[in-house]
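Troubleshooting: if your tokenizer reports a length mismatch, compare your output against this known-good record of 141 residues.
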Amino acid sequence: MNLQAAPAPRGGRIAWQLSLTLWVGGVWVLHFVLLPALLHFGMAPLLVEEVGSFMRPLMTAFAGICGLLQLLVLWLAVGAGWWRDLRGQLLVLVLAAAGLFFLLGEMSVPRSEYWQIFCYLVVAFSGLALVLQPRPDETYR
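Known-good structure output:
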């Protein structure tokens, strides 16, 4: 089945690409580059964990806000069938994982910090899968 996407306005294409680049890149750089690099350079593990516990909520909130923006762009380009699109499903997964990240932070669940890391990684890998998808104004082949 060849799905034709409606031509998105230029601003929508730019917003999609820029927000995707910023939030996915930020999430990946923080967890897989910055924090391991700080450990490698001899920073105290407790200090690195403190940096991570400060930055992860910021990056998760940024990913959620950018996910909402991308969902709006997808809805404008695809229409009411956005939820049947893989990009829409991935964005809903990102929003759900980001929401659960903050919900777990407020609850006193045993081992909630590990579940928060799991939610953060769900956001990261959903973003990676989203990067591999075409923009909403491109067609499926």
